[in-house]
């Protein structure tokens, strides 16, 4: 009877290991046998899930029977927790630096750690036993995917690291970059850049296609009092009734787009929930006077930052793409960009991005109109941080183009970028600088969550409820926060986010700071007619 040597590893405490010999034949149930061995050898009475290196779940017994799992492979045994992916015993508590999984090639240059996963080839000189034969999945198994996490000061949740590792194993993946604001998502991490060839992954972008930020210079004085803004900002929820939203959409996109997102006009010009906001800021400090002068940044004006996306239009595009995919495509997770499904998704994706940009434009118009400041307002920037775009990246392939998927990652090849802190913290206007290839032509899009929303809610005091709410409505910097949803107010509290100064410090090799922005008033939502 054939057998295979394996090393079982306690996923939650990876210093605990046990070498075993597993008998494998057509009649055996190797997955069940491994779980039984783990319960006996590792004393894991609730062992239930098995992972290979990089967080690939071992759920197919045929991998053990047909040799896809090599001799002396590491099998990580979980009692229900997600794949940890760290080789040290305890997760980091103060910094974002992570240890790459075993069985990988690692190089370090400055503050950047790069982990290269190598496909198994017949002529490989490597004897690493933790590699799987993914020839049938990769375009070319000799081409590797690299994982870089650009965090030194910023904390990185182990689950975000595990999600990043799992994503790096997707077919066609060439480069994965975790930004300093990296944090776990539902399935894929947020604050990351994924570069592929041939395949595109709608799920990596998610439903808020085209989400991004715009910055406007207004004629409002920098001396304006926060309470004046608070008193004026009403009537921003629900359908825009002071004009024709469809006509506004056409004015921005052109007559050929009369049907684009028409079903979602009730939401055009609305922020939505979550971390979206409209925030008035002033210049706290001009760091690069020459750049500030070139774009007209002055200490005497107030500026508006708008963060929102494509609302339900993006969700419709994602659902439509999923419904068009074959069973094989759904199993593969990705779509061939040149297929009919791929082309259809990309067309709708681009429209959703344009719709999202128009949404930000109308939000700004509605907000500034309330303060009689819509005239003379000038847009300084508008960038997407949830999208996919095509780009030739010579370090990957001089002949074939790549697809850059940004999930909560701002582009660093489009000029100025705004990186906001949490409510009550400074934001930063930066200019990309240096070699942008290393960071995947992307930057952090904000501070990044430190606590999941559920844990942030648990921090809500049980006593003096009204006092705690008031404390979050006026920040340490003296700015006001308009948020009439109590749960959302606590979910978005400053302590739920990473330190923005750590994010900026970690991005040091890739940006130069142009100006530091001080918040005056942040609008989240009012309990008015919402859509």
From TrEMBL:
User: Pfam families from the xrefs?
Assistant: RtcB
UniProt binding sites for GMP: 275-279, 385-386, 427, 445-448
Is-annotated flag, keyword Ligase?
Answer: yes
Binding locations of Mn(2+) 1: 276
Cofactor binding, note field: Binds 2 manganese ions per subunit.
- List the active site: 445 (gmp-histidine intermediate)
**Is the Metal-binding keyword given for this protein?**
yes
Q: Which reaction does it catalyse?
A: a 3'-end 3'-phospho-ribonucleotide-RNA + a 5'-end dephospho-ribonucleoside-RNA + GTP = a ribonucleotidyl-ribonucleotide-RNA + GMP + diphosphate
User: Where does the chain bind Mn(2+) 2?
Assistant: 307, 385
Q: Which GO terms describe its molecular function?
A: GTP binding; metal ion binding; RNA ligase (ATP) activity; RNA ligase (GTP) activity
Give the domain of life. Eukaryota
Q: List the cofactors.
A: Mn(2+)
Bias-annotated ranges (Low complexity): 91-107
Keyword annotations: GTP-binding, Ligase, Manganese, Metal-binding, Nucleotide-binding
Q: What is its EC number?
A: 6.5.1.8
Span of the signal peptide:
none
Span list, region Disordered: 86-118
Q: Which SUPFAM superfamilies match?
A: Hypothetical protein PH1602
Name recorded for this polypeptide: 3'-phosphate/5'-hydroxy nucleic acid ligase
Q: What is the lineage of its organism?
A: Eukaryota, Fungi, Fungi incertae sedis, Mucoromycota, Mortierellomycotina
